Amino acid sequence: xxxxLNNHIERCWKQIGIFGDSTCDKLDDVVHCRNCPQYxxxxxxxxxxxxxxxxxxxxxxxxxxPEETEKPDIISVVVFRLNFEWLALKTKYLQEVTKMLxxxxxxxxxxxxxxxxxxxxxxLVPCVSLANIIGLTGENDVQSTLTVYKRMIVxxxxxxxYVFIADEMIGIRRISPHDQKKxxxxxxxxxxxxxxxxxxxxxxxxxxxxxxxFFSSLKRSLTF
Length: 224
Hints:
It is built from eight helices and eleven strands. By secondary structure, the chain is of the alpha+beta class. The chain has a six-stranded mixed sheet with strand order 3-7-8-6-5-4, with no helix packed on it. Strands 9-1-2-11-10 form a five-stranded mixed sheet. The termini are far apart. The radius of gyration is 27 Å and the shape is elongated. The longest helix is centred in the first third of the chain and has 12 residues, at 37-48. The protein has two domains: 3-64, no CATH class; 75-220, CATH 2.40.50.180.
């Protein structure tokens, strides 16, 4: 088999195969080129090729370079809404976001703050009302033209895990301390106490939760 024909066969999936015009008569049987023996043979030939000159030296110099690290002043946060207030928490404490799951009542323990237990992947996690802990108990007057789904957010530090319900989420965002704003008069007093800084994220005024105060409050909510 000459070199030209060999190259044609090796690249047949790009010409008459699934990545080409799909005219190969073998597709009726194999469905996808990855299931074709010819595709497998080409892969074997690829791994049998000699290492190009200078490849090892280039790879060595690449991995020898110091790893580029993210700028220390950039913070990754998850942004969510509780009642009428937008808040953010550093994603290092975010463990999972899930759909609404059943909250199991605990006799003589369930109250306005401790709502019960939620089964998170086979583990019972305390569910708390973060809105009540922070004091966001006013009426929810947030209007939206989009369909809004509540989500359960699982958070944790080194020892403890908790789950709470967020009325809305806009996902993960990146902020810098340099973008911190002055506290507006319209921000609730409760959110101000728990916030380490105020930011504008997606045209929303968002309070970044103080990690220590946040987890201390969650832990105190389970003290009976």
